[in-house]
Structure formats: structure tokens, C-alpha cells
Design brief:
CATH architecture of the largest domain in chain A: Up-down Bundle
Strand order of the largest sheet of chain B: 5-6-7-8
Radius of gyration of chain A: 39 Å
Structural class of chain A: mainly alpha
CATH topology of the largest domain in chain A: f41 fragment of flagellin, N-terminal domain
CATH class of the largest domain in chain A: Mainly Alpha
Strand content of chain B: 5-15%
Oligomer: heterodimer
Largest sheet of chain A: 2 strands, antiparallel
Number of strands of chain A: 6
Order of helices and strands of chain A: HHHEEEEEEHHHH
CATH superfamily of the largest domain in chain A: f41 fragment of flagellin, N-terminal domain
Shape of chain B: rod-shaped
Largest interface: A-B, 70 and 70 residues
Number of domains of chain B: 2
Largest sheet of chain B: 4 strands, antiparallel
Shape of chain A: rod-shaped
Number of strands of chain B: 11
Number of domains of chain A: 2
Strand order of the largest sheet of chain A: 1-2
Structural class of chain B: alpha+beta
Distance between the termini of chain B: 26 Å
Chain lengths: ~300, ~475
């Protein structure tokens, strides 16, 4: 039987392969990444794109939700101050309506309520990061202005009925604002500004028309309840947001684990493989060195 | 009846023959490492016997030349396999460069640059962030900057693909002159072989021709047809004649649609060369199939993202309360007119972040309904019936699978080449152990012949002296 006299060349080919193998394993070890090119694991590479995209989306939602949580908190605390102010106004009005005050005291109640109107107007014009949060879709101009041209004065709304929503990665829509007109200019006896302006007019002369003033005070009371009801919407949004953001954080944690499992090199396995590849390489080198030595042909045995 | 002097004649011929055989061994050993050299064996021929009456008397041996130990079928199978391995090898090299443009993102923060998948998500996420505060300048600026990253990564990938295609085009054109040189040499060798050795193996000339064929097989796919008088005709795998007897036909190149096409005579053989084999086949497959496929996928992605985002932005209202018009549409990206070229031309044309239409057309400027709609495009099937991320993910998987399958193919073909090479080497290669043993045999036979010669001399001396031992020695 004849043999390939150039078998050492084939061994060198094997040595090249062993070296390449060791090189790839070293690259995996040094980068810590198991998929260094698409062809190494095409399906894994595709899956990686999906996982990273979802992780990125979750990250982005978490950031957005902390941004809007700030806005909702500001809205909530503004409404809470409004409620306090309105309670003060109601107790002032009640004391003015019981008929025991003299004219100057009544006028003083009127001007205190006027101060409260200013306070509530400024709360209704609260802005957060440059956005007027009670202006509906018109967030760049302050939505409430009071005109004193008539008696009672009229507070008008320049915003609109726009409502913004934030969508979570799962598609849940979370309401971000309640239009100011819906909170402060409710219909009928639910208008905060209407009731306040009427009361100011009631007390401006110093003489109280008790029937009118009592009815206006009752309207303010009902407007206060209305504001509290609107505040529930904001509070609900905050609850939804915190639940959604918690859920997203959990999902992200799972996705990150999956992505890490997919892409991270298995260090013990790779190290073992590298050590095997090195052993193989050394062995091949030894074999080649042995075979290449001149004492390996019959010629070396010939006399002379 | 044989005489002593005829025995002298037989022995001197034997010495000549042994010497010639030793020459053959020396030549084999000298060429042991010469590429393409085929081991030669000395031919021995018994001389015709002398018939004297009813007696036949042997007349010794003559060395009548050499035979190269060759298996033409094996050699041509090796050539064929080399054509396939060279083709998948050069295609694989191109694909390796190609896939390096889309290296998987490990997910660590430092690895995201240049990753189109990450760019797509960042871009649509920038609209989700804008939902939180649609009038915020920083968030609007972020939309433009992520759009810029996406479009520059897509367009630079397209530009790299284009330059790889040009490089392949040049490599492919360079093959032509090598092919022509080889076919010319083969035609010349054909002529020499036909005139010197029309009926038998032509030894060294045949080695040279085989070596040229083997080199040609690395370059292009060929068919070999043996013709009369030991000639060889060579055609491409599709049948275009390259060598016939002592004539060779030049392969020429010409530019067709911006790339180099290959001709024999006036026939364009580019397509058949691509599937034929050899490194040229691999280059052409990469140039005309692989790169265009990847580029078309990127074009589709760029086209659909650009047009859908532009349309959606145009449907909304910008921060100045203005909606898009036919004359002044609110476009973020350069609006592509056709799918082809969309990736290379993808860019952000919007410079003022206030032009981003976060608000619905009939709403206030603080409205975010259009930003929600823009962000939702990420989850809609806007690219060939898939979401942008799904499309990119599939694209990556398809490309990876293609490279992986060519890798496997190349590995198998290389193994098969090695196997055939081993078979061919074990048949035709110079085995030094064999040569050592042949040399010893011929040396011994030379020694024996000299010894017989010396003995005959003694016998002849005895005959001349007729018993007087001292006169002639």
C-alpha cells in the first residue's frame, strides 16, 4: 500500500485549524461574549436583536414614567393646595353669612376671598418643566385669566380639552392630565372660579344679601367636592404608572437575564475548551517536529 | 550457442540499464518537493532472445525510458473539487467581511455604536419619551439625534457594501489575465505534447500541463476533454471554449451596468462563471448575489422607515402650530422616491426640532397624540409585513445562516480536496522510502552485474591462457 509522502503538510493544516480554534476561544474569553459574528449562531443573533430592543423599550418607559410621575405629583399637590384654600374660603364665607359682622369686616372677608382667588388662579396656572399642566393641549400659555371688567368678575380659560396619554410597552394607556376647565370651571354649581367670583361680589359692598351669599357658599362647597373628584383621576394615573413601571422593571430583569444567558460566554466551558485546544496544538507540534527530523527516511539507514 | 563475449555484451547492457534506473531514482529524489512533479518509474524490457537452432538464448535487458505514475481520472476529480472549494472559499472570505458590518451587539453600553437594531429602537423610543413632555426641547432634539444615528449607520453600512462590491469587482477582473496566461500555456503544452508524445504519457510536459490545469481550477470552473494525439480541450462549465489543441481563446472583460462582465468572443459568460466554480465563481456570487441581497434588505428597511415616519409626522402639527402642506411637508428623513438606493441616501433633512409634529393636527401644541402614533410605528408591521425590529432580526438571522451554510459547505469541500489530494499524493508523489529501496535494489543489481563482469573476465583469462595461469590475469 502506498501512503501520502506529504502527510506532514496535512498535519500542518490541522495545526492551523487548532490555532484558529484557540484564537476564537481566546476572543470569546477576552470579550466575554459568546456570539462574536452572525454565523456563529444566526438564530441567537436574531433573538439578541429582539431582546435588546425590548430591554431598550422598557428602559425608555421607565425613564419616561419617572418624568411624568413628577408632573402628576405636581398636579396632585397643586390640587391639594386648592382644596385647602377652598376650605378656608368656605369657612370665611360661612362666618360672613351668619349676620353678626359689621360692614368693614364683611369687606375684609371679601378681600381675603379675593386673595384666595389669586392663589387658586396661580395654582391653576401651575407649570412643570415649561408645560402648564392644567391647560389641556395648550401647554405653552397660562390657561386662566380673571377679568374684573364686570361684577362679578369672570375667570376665563384659554386652554383646550386635550388629554395626553403615555403608552406603556404593553400598550396600556395612562392619562397624564385633566384639562383645567374640567377641574375649575365645572358646569352648574361645580365651577370653582364662578363661586369664588360670586362671593367676592357678594361681600364687596359690605352688606350681605344672606340668601344669595348662602347659595354661593353652597356652590363653592359643591365646587370643592368636584375638584376632589377630579383629583382622583390624577391619583389613579399615579397608581397605574407605578404599577406599570414596576411590571416593566420586572420584565426587563427577566429579559436581561435571558439576553445575558444568550450572549455571555460560558467561561468555565470556554476555558476548558481552550486548554484542550492548547494541548492538541502542542501535541501536533511535537508530532510534526518528530516526523520532520532527518532520521525518518530509509536514506538515513543506508551505509555511507 | 552463447559465447563469452556475448555474455560481456549482456552484462554491459545490464550495467547501462541499472545506471539509467539509478538516474531515474536520482531525478525522483531531486524533484521530491517540486509542485506538480509525478513520480517516474524506469521501464525494463527484456531483449529479444537469440534463436540458435532450437535453442533460445536470452539477450539481457534494456532500459526503455520512464513512465510517470499518474491517474488522470483522479487528477481531474481533484481539479473539479478544487474548483468548488475555491469558489466557496472566496465567497466565504467576502461574506466574512460582509457580516462584520453587522456584528451582534453584546448589550453592554459600550457596544451599541453602529448597531442598526439598537438604532431603530432608540429612534422609536425617542418618540415614547416625547409623549411625556411633547414641548420639551431636549426631548425633541433627542428625536433628531437618534434619527441621525440611525440614518448614518444605515447609510454607512450601504456605503461599505458598495465599496466591498467594487473591491470584489476588481479582484474578479484581475483573474482574467491569470486565466488567459494559463490557457495560453496549456495550448502551447498541448502542441508540444502532440508532436513529441502523441500516443503515450508525456512525462514532464504532462506534469506541467496538469499543474497549469490545477492552477486554472483554483480560478474558474472548467471542463476537460481529452482529444486525439494526447491533446486536451478546455471549456468553461457552461461550454465556452477556452483551449482547443494548440489554440487558446482569450477571456475578455467589459463594463456592463457599472460592473465588469466576462466574455469569450462576444458571448457574456458572467452568469455561468458565477455558478461554475473557482475563486472567480465565489467573487461573482458575492458580487452579484450576496451583496445585492443584503443591500436590498437594507434598502427596504430604510425606505419603509423613512416614508412611514415622514407620513406620520406630516399628518401631525409642529410646535409652532403648523401642519404639513404639499409644498412644505413636515419630513424628518430625506423622502426616498424608490426602494432602491434608499439605504445609501438615508439622511435626516429636518434641522429644527420644533418641526417634529408631536401634536395631533387639530389639537393644541402641548398635545402628544401624534407622538404616540409615531412611537407606535415601532410595533406596527411597516416593513414588508413585519415590525422594523422583527425585520432587522430576521435579516440578521438570514445573513448569519447564509454565512454559516457557506462555512459548512467550504469545510466539507476542503476536506474532500484534502482526501483526493492524499489519494493523488500517495499515488504520484515521490516517496523517499520507496526511492531508497529502489536505489538499494539498483545498486545491488549494478554490483552484481559488475561482479559477473569480473567473473567473465577471469573466465576469459583462463580461456586465453589455456591452463597457463600466469600469462593473462
Amino acid at each position: 500500500m502506498r501512503v501520502d509522502p506529504f502527510y506532514v503538510t496535512n498535519l500542518v493544516g490541522s495545526l492551523d485549524q487548532a490555532q484558529l480554534n484557540a484564537q476564537q476561544l481566546t476572543a470569546e474569553l477576552s470579550s466575554g461574549v459568546s456570539i462574536n459574528s452572525l454565523s456563529q449562531n444566526p438564530v441567537g443573533a436574531g433573538e439578541n436583536v429582539q431582546l435588546l430592543s425590548q430591554i431598550q423599550q422598557d428602559d425608555s418607559f421607565t425613564q419616561s414614567s419617572s418624568l411624568v410621575t413628577g408632573q402628576l405629583q405636581v398636579a396632585d399637590s397643586a390640587l391639594s393646595s386648592v382644596v385647602t384654600e377652598l376650605n378656608t374660603a368656605i369657612s370665611l364665607a360661612t362666618s360672613a353669612n351668619n349676620g353678626t359682622m359689621n360692614g368693614s369686616n364683611v369687606r375684609s372677608v371679601g378681600s381675603q376671598i379675593s386673595g384666595i382667588l389669586d392663589e387658586v388662579t396661580s395654582l391653576a396656572n401651575t407649570s412643570y418643566q415649561g408645560q402648564y399642566i392644567f391647560g389641556g393641549g395648550q401647554t405653552l400659555t397660562s390657561p386662566f385669566n380673571t377679568s374684573t371688567a364686570t361684577t362679578p368678575a369672570v375667570t376665563s380659560y384659554t386652554g383646550d380639552q386635550g388629554v395626553n396619554y403615555l403608552e406603556s410597552p404593553s400598550g396600556q394607556k395612562i392619562q397624564l392630565n385633566v384639562p383645567g376647565s374640567q377641574i375649575f370651571l365645572g358646569s352648574g354649581s361645580n365651577s370653582v372660579f364662578g363661586a369664588l367670583n360670586n362671593l367676592i361680589a357678594d361681600y364687596s359692598s359690605g352688606t350681605v344679601n344672606t340668601a344669595q351669599a348662602t347659595s354661593d357658599t353652597a356652590a363653592l362647597n359643591s365646587a370643592l367636592n368636584w375638584v376632589s373628584q377630579q383629583r382622583v383621576t390624577i391619583d389613579n394615573s399615579m397608581t397605574q404608572l407605578s404599577a406599570a413601571s414596576g411590571a416593566v422593571t420586572n420584565v426587563k430583569l427577566q429579559l436581561t437575564t435571558a439576553q445575558t444567558d444568550l450572549m455571555q460566554a460560558d467561561i468555565p466551558t470556554v476555558s476548558t475548551q481552550l486548554s484542550l485546544a492548547e494541548t492538541q496544538q502542542t501535541a501536533l507540534e511535537d508530532v510534526i517536529a518528530q516526523l520532520n527530523s532527518t532520521s525518518n527516511t530509509l536514506f538515513s539507514k543506508l551505509p555511507g | 550457442m552463447g559465447t563469452i563475449s556475448s555474455a560481456f555484451g549482456i552484462m554491459s547492457q545490464a550495467l547501462d540499464a541499472d545506471q539509467q534506473a539509478l538516474n531515474v531514482v536520482a531525478n525522483n529524489v531531486a524533484n521530491a518537493n517540486t509542485p506538480g512533479y509525478t513520480e517516474e518509474k524506469p521501464n525494463w524490457q527484456e531483449n529479444s532472445p537469440l534463436e540458435i537452432g532450437s535453442l533460445q538464448v536470452g539477450q539481457g535487458v534494456t532500459e526503455t525510458g520512464t513512465t510517470s505514475v499518474r491517474d488522470r481520472v483522479l487528477e481531474s476529480r481533484l481539479d473539479q473539487q478544487q474548483q468548488m472549494a475555491a469558489s466557496s472559499g472566496s465567497r466565504l472570505t467576502s461574506l466574512d467581511t460582509l457580516q462584520a458590518l453587522f456584528t451582534p451587539d453584546s448589550g453592554s453600553s459600550s457596544s451599541q455604536a453602529g448597531d442598526i437594531g439598537g438604532d431603530i429602537t432608540s429612534f422609536f423610543d425617542s418618540f415614547s419619551s416625547l409623549e411625556a413632555n411633547p414641548t420639551n426641547n431636549a426631548l425633541r432634539q433627542n428625536v433628531l439625534s437618534t434619527a441621525g444615528t440611525l440614518s448614518s449607520d444605515v447609510s454607512s453600512a450601504a456605503a461599505s457594501l458598495d465599496s466591498q462590491r467594487l473591491a470584489l469587482n476588481q479582484e474578479a477582473s484581475g483573474v482574467t489575465s491569470q486565466v488567459n496566461a494559463l490557457t495560453g500555456a496549456i495550448a502551447q503544452l498541448n502542441q508540444q505534447i502532440q508532436s513529441i508524445s502523441p500516443n503515450a504519457d508525456a512525462g514532464i510536459l504532462e506534469d506541467n500541463r496538469q499543474q497549469d490545469l490545477s492552477q486554472l481550477s483554483q480560478l474558474i470552473g472548467i471542463n476537460q476533454i481529452t482529444t486525439e494525439n494526447n491533446g486536451l480541450a478546455i471549456t468553461t462549465t457552461s461550454g465556452a471554449l477556452l483551449v482547443s489543441g494548440s489554440s487558446s481563446y482569450q477571456m475578455t472583460t467589459g463594463t456592463v451596468n457599472g460592473v465588469t462582465d466576462f466574455f469569450v468572443g462576444t458571448t457574456d459568460i458572467t452568469k455561468s462563471l458565477a455558478t461554475g466554480g473557482g475563486s472567480l465563481g465565489g467573487y461573482l456570487t458575492a458580487r452579484d448575489t450576496d451583496i445585492p441581497t443584503v443591500l436590498a434588505a437594507l434598502d427596504q428597511l430604510a425606505y419603509n422607515i423613512s416614508t412611514t415616519v415622514n407620513t406620520q409626522n406630516d399628518a401631525g402639527m409642529n410646535l409652532d402650530g403648523v401642519t404639513g402642506t404639499a409644498l412644505a411637508p413636515l419630513y424628518i428623513f430625506n423622502q426616498p422616491s424608490a426602494v432602491e438606493g434608499s439605504a445609501a441616501n438615508m439622511s435626516v433633512t429636518m434641522t429644527d426640532p420644533n418641526q417634529i409634529a408631536a401634536a395631533g393636527a387639530a389639537n393644541g401644541t402641548g398635545d402628544n397624540s401624534n407622538a404616540v402614533a409615531l412611537a407606535n410605528l415601532a410595533g406596527q408591521t411597516i416593513v414588508s409585513g413585519q415590525t422594523p425590529t422583527d425585520y432587522y432580526s430576521n435579516f440578521v438571522t438570514t445573513l448569519g445562516a447564509t454565512v454559516s451554510s457557506v462555512q459548512t459547505e467550504n469545510k466539507a469541500q476542503a476536506a474532500s480536496v484534502t482526501q483526493l489530494q492524499t489519494q493523488n499524493n500517495s499515488l504520484s508523489g515521490v516517496n523517499l522510502n520507496d526511492e531508497a529501496s529502489s536505489m538499494t535494489t539498483f545498486e545491488r543489481s549494478y554490483q552484481a552485474a559488475s561482479q559477473v563482469f569480473a567473473m567473465l573476465n577471469t573466465i576469459m583469462g583462463s580461456a586465453l591462457n589455456l591452463g597457463e595461469q600466469t600469462t593473462v590475469t
